[in-house]
Amino acid sequence: MWIVITCMAIFALTLGAALLGLFMQRRIPKEHKTESARAILGQVSGLLSLLLALVLGTLVGASFAFFSSQKTELETLSAQILRLDEALAQYGPEANPARDRLKESARIAYNAFWGGGEADLKLLSVSIPIASAKATKTFLAALNPTTEAQKEAVATARTLVGQIEQSRLLMDLQVVSHPANPGLLTVLTVWAVLLFFTMGVLAESNRLVLSTVTFGAACVALAIFLILELGLPYTGVFRVSGAALEAAMNNIGNDP
């Protein structure tokens, strides 16, 4: 909700700056409306337009790269979960409690973010993967492997538990550090306001001009909307697909 409000405020500020520029254009004395003044305003407007386009494009690209990396991390995590279940299955029936807990954890995570309800932000806490890995390591330490196959299965499971913990911690810490810096977004907003004010000063008001500046202000607001939403891969409008985790969850405990 805060993203929508922020983008609406940016749209209002940008469009308001353009309207203010159109208003001021009518009241500027004729002696100031020289060709040289228009040339300088046009150059400044072009500079602001270039800066705004470059930084907005860079931020959209960075946010999309962050979103894509989270998708890759989730797919890697899902594969590691399946491999852990396979290792526990190779150990034997004694490891079934850990397999059941693994399946339940995957089910809770999937339902929390892709179950159709409101996302549970508490599951993105770094304390959860640490506690889960600790519990699984304690369970593995309590096992008494007697055969070489069981010893190998326990060693593989311990390695995978560490990898899963590392993947979960990396994902959670990346989500905490949003790719869009509030200070940078503030600078972008100031540039957009100045740009549209300058555009308004250079133009004469008519329906086409009003429609154009409204469309331009909407484009700036939508670009910032994309930047902010792509930085929320599990709780935003554009969520990372949970298909990989769903497939892993459905296959946990299914012995061939």
Please tell me about this protein's structure.
The protein has one domain. Helix 1 (2-27) packs parallel to helix 6 and helix 4 packs antiparallel against helix 5 (148-176). The chain contains 8 helices and no strands. By secondary structure, the protein is an all-alpha fold. The mean pLDDT is 85.
Secondary structure topology:
Blueprint: H1 2-27, H2 35-91, H3 96-114, H4 127-142, H5 148-176, H6 182-202, H7 207-230, H8 243-251
Helix pairs in contact: 1-6, 1-7, 2-3, 2-5, 2-6, 2-7, 2-8, 3-8, 4-5, 6-7
Mean pLDDT: 85
Q: Main β-sheet, in a few words? A: none
Percent of residues in beta strands: under 5%
Seen as an oligomer or otherwise, the chain set is single chain
The DSSP helix count reads 8
What is the share of helical residues? Answer: over 70%
- Runs in which pLDDT lies below 50 for 5 or more consecutive residues are none
Which terms summarize this structure?
single chain, 256 residues, mainly alpha, 79% helix
